[in-house]
Design brief:
single chain; mainly alpha; 7 helices; 76% helix
């Protein structure tokens, strides 16, 4: 089940989001997301080839996914960084994390033999939504207490 969950795109997007959350600046967040997803894609395909799971190194697929990570990585990292903000709009980038899980998981025509990865994804999306909203409400409450 873990392998199936990690094969979903949302898991990789959340890695960049998490790195962005802990980054000190917007540029570092975007760079961390780009670097993490690019390296993860390369390691994934090289390890498949090294362990004999593929007959040849899939350079075409690897290039494709590294290109995708070039767009998703910086965007997810930046959203993660912006989600820490205390302003009223700070909840919007925070809700991007559960939205990424839902968008990258939803498949109306899916007849997947193992539904558990999808159940895990939906539970994670609900949990992230509750956590982000709770944190934002606490930040807004603290802000009202400090600023009359």
């Amino acid at each position: 089940m873990l392998a199936t969950v990690l094969a979903m795109a949302w898991a990789w997007a959340l890695v960049a989001f998490g790195l962005g959350w802990f980054s000190a600046s917007k540029w570092r967040a975007a760079s961390a997301g780009l670097l993490a997803l690019g390296v993860a894609c390369a390691v994934y395909y090289v390890s498949d080839y090294s362990f004999g799971l593929n007959d040849a190194l899939s350079t075409g697929e690897m290039t494709y996914w590294i290109a995708i990570s070039g767009a998703v990585g910086p965007a997810s990292g930046l959203l993660g960084h912006l989600a820490r903000r205390w302003q009223r709009w700070g909840i919007l980038p925070g809700l991007a994390a559960p939205a990424l899980v839902v968008v990258f998981t939803y498949r109306a025509d899916s007849d997947h033999i193992q539904p558990w990865p999808y159940v895990v994804a939906w539970i994670l999306a609900v949990g992230l939504t509750i956590a982000v909203t709770w944190r934002w409400l606490l930040m807004q409450r603290r802000l009202r207490m400090v600023v009359p």
